[in-house]
Structure formats: structure tokens, C-alpha cells
Design a protein that fits this description.
The protein has about 375 residues and is an alpha/beta fold. Helix content is about 35%, strand content about 15%. A six-stranded parallel sheet has the order 7-8-9-10-11-12. It is globular. The relative contact order is 0.16.
């Protein structure tokens, strides 16, 4: 549409991570589809309606970029990664779990994994049609979120990648990057000018538990950071100059306690100066992320989106507290390079237990927009 913004140099002052709470009608339709009670066309119709209403809600609350809420996905990673050839979901080789609010393991919520059983390729576009619909109903910038390629390796390691097809892991990573470049190229051709990679694994590598688990799996956590930086950089290689790219470093959103703790300083010196994205979405809604000191390694000119508003609890943050924390971060990163967002999406999967209601979600977004206007004068 004519009012969509197409040339971006940074995220919006009030930005958001991607997913939203699914309305009951959509959840019921997806369940009915899984049982074979309705067809794909009927499910698509329900999804279309829900996305139109979500886009209108985001625009009415003052956001200048909108997503489709991941309403066409079962989960933030399953549908996208499952769209590539020879990729199957499996139990992860990392013997780690999401956490309860008291820090104990959520025994029913082990970190999931993936296996690559043959030649990794993209034989068809994965998210392009979904983006085209979003663009057609949005009056502001449509943002698309895709799963980071690092998930294909991190949760299973060498043993999850078919050794006959890939005796040399360098060829595997090259094939992954090439497939991602194809998807990004087609998204750009469809009009995408703002793409976000959703990545858990850099944040997980800030956590001593995960670093130990990675070692037990036969990997070096320090080397993995460099490997994954190269993988993502190769995936974004030759991207158009007017395509804004961002990465969200997620600490796990399937439980109230998340999955990973530990400050970004553990990997910041390797990650921030070397990853070729325009912006970092960082979770800072509680103490598990550490302080802002790690931001010293973010190069000048790159944006940091502070995830200060939690999606895990319904209570609203204080505007004064949000402004104070933004001011603290601005002592390290220039204010003009900062933005604000929730720490994560509101619903990582369709069956994730709802922690807040849609009305409370809307109140969070309203707070986001109002705070950004108060701090920067716009959003």
C-alpha cells in the first residue's frame, strides 16, 4: 500500500518481536484441522480473518511496523524449518529443559531438536506467500520473522546431521546458507524490506549450563559462536542495501522461567562486532540477562532494541522505570541507536499456555508505543 514505509535505516522506536496471542477462533480452527474436521482452505480463511484483525489492532495502537503474529504457524520454528527438504523434528541431544519461575527444571518441557537426514535444500518458498498476504493488508511496514539457521545444528550437533551426506560440516553450513539466501531473495522480491532472524542459541551460549551441555555433545561453545556468526553472515551475504536485518536473541519463552540465564558479555565480544545485521533485539526484562555493560561491544551505527517489557506477566511496567533503564543503556549505546520492544513474542506456539489475556497484551503494546513517544518524540 502507498502508506507503507519501504526504506528503513533502523528498527522503529516502538518495535515488537513477532508473535501474538492467538484468538480462540483460530486455535479452535487449527485443532479442528489437525483432527481432519476442516480442510486447509477453511483454516486459511480463519487465519486470514485473524491476521487482518491483528494488523488493524497493531496499527490502531500506533505501531509503525506490524507482523502477522505468526498466526499461520504451529510454533515459531517448527513450520519454517520444516519447510526445508530432509529436515525432521526430533528430541534434542541437549539434555536441558525450560525452567519454572523458581528456576527449577520444567520436566515436561525439554529443549527440542532437529535432524537433517539428507541433502539440505529449499525446493520451494517457505514464507513468501504468507508475507504477501501480510503486505496486502498492512498500511504500515510489514515485518517478517524467520527462524535462525543456527537451530539446525545447535540442538543436535554433529550427530543430528547425516554423516553420509555431510562428511564435511563445512558443506552442510554452505548448503544452509545458500537455502536461506534463496528465501531472503524471494521475500525481498515480494516486497519485504524488514526481516528479523529469531535465534535462541547465542543467548543459550551465555548460560554456563548450556555451555557445559554443548561440551558434552562434543562441541566447543567458543568456536560455536564464531561458526554461527559465519553461518548467518553467509546467509545474509549480498543482501540488498535497502533490506533492514535484525536478530532477536531469545532466552526461551515456552515457560515463565525461560531457558537460559547469563549476561551477553559472555559472547558479546565475538558476536556484536562481527555479526552483519543492522539491529540486535535483546531481552532485558529481568535479571537473568545481566546488565547493559555488554553493549560496549556493539559497533556505533548499529541499533539495540531493548526488550524491557515482559510478555511473561500481565502486570504493566512503570513508564518511569522504563525511561530510567533506557537512560542507563544510553550511557553505553547512544540514545539515537536505541529502541524499545517487549522481551519476546507473546506466544511462541499455538498451544503455549496463555499467561496473559489479549486485552493485557494490548495494554503492553500501548505502553510500548506511549513510552517510545515520551522518550524519543516519535516511534
Amino acid at each position: 500500500m502507498a502508506t507503507q514505509e519501504t526504506k528503513l535505516t533502523r528498527p522503529f522506536r516502538a518495535d515488537q518481536v513477532g508473535s501474538y496471542l492467538r484468538p480462540d477462533e483460530l486455535v479452535e480452527a487449527r485443532n479442528a484441522h489437525a483432527k481432519g474436521e476442516i480442510g486447509s482452505d477453511r483454516l486459511r480463511t480463519v487465519e486470514d480473518k485473524a491476521i487482518r484483525e491483528l494488523v488493524a489492532m497493531q496499527e490502531d495502537l500506533g505501531l509503525r511496523c506490524v507482523t502477522d503474529g505468526e498466526f499461520r504457524r504451529q510454533s515459531w520454528n517448527r513450520d519454517f524449518l520444516g519447510g526445508f527438504d530432509n529436515v525432521v523434528e526430533q528430541k534434542g541431544n541437549l539434555k536441558l529443559y525450560h525452567r519454572n519461575i523458581d528456576g527449577s527444571n520444567d520436566a515436561a518441557n525439554q529443549i527440542s531438536g532437529w535432524a537433517v537426514t539428507g541433502k539440505f535444500r529449499r525446493s520451494r518458498p517457505i514464507q513468501v506467500d504468507d508475507f504477501k498476504f501480510l503486505k496486502s493488508v498492512a498500511r504500515v511496514t510489514p515485518k517478517t520473522c524467520i527462524t535462525s539457521p543456527t537451530l539446525l545444528h545447535f540442538r543436535g550437533g554433529r550427530e543430528a546431521i547425516d554423516k553420509k551426506t555431510y562428511p564435511d560440516m563445512a558443506q552442510f553450513f554452505a548448503d544452509v546458507a545458500a537455502a536461506y539466501r534463496d528465501e531472503i531473495r524471494d521475500l525481498y522480491a515480494a516486497g519485504a524490506r524488514y526481516i528479523q532472524l529469531d535465534d535462541t542459541n547465542f543467548a543459550y551460549l551465555c548460560d554456563a549450563r548450556f555451555r557445559d551441555a554443548v561440551k558434552e555433545m562434543g562441541e566447543d561453545p567458543v568456536e560455536l559462536v564464531d561458526t554461527y556468526v559465519k553461518l548467518i553472515n553467509d546467509s545474509l551475504r549480498d543482501k540488498p542495501a535497502d533490506l533492514l536485518t535484525a536478530i532477536h536473541l531469545c532466552r526461551g519463552n515456552s515457560s515463565k522461567g525461560g531457558a537460559a540465564t547469563g549476561g551477553y558479555d559472555v559472547i558479546g565480544g565475538q558476536l556484536f562486532p562481527n555479526l552483519n545485521v543492522d539491529a540486535f533485539f535483546l531481552e532485558y526484562d529481568d535479571a537473568r540477562a545481566g546488565g547493559f555493560e555488554a553493549l560496549k561491544d556493539v559497533p556505533n551505527g548499529k541499533s539495540v532494541v531493548l526488550g524491557l517489557i515482559t510478555t511473561k506477566r500481565a502486570d504493566l511496567e512503570s513508564k518511569d522505570d522504563l525511561r530510567r533503564r533506557i537512560d542507563e543503556a544510553a550511557k553505553i549505546v547512544p540514545m539515537e541507536n536505541l529502541c524499545l520492544s517487549p522481551q519476546c513474542g507473546f506466544a511462541s506456539g499455538v498451544h503455549q499456555k496463555r499467561r496473559i489475556e489479549i486485552s493485557e497484551e494490548m495494554a503492553k503494546v500501548k505502553l510500548l508505543v506511549e513510552t517510545a513517544r515520551d522518550v524519543w518524540g516519535d516511534n
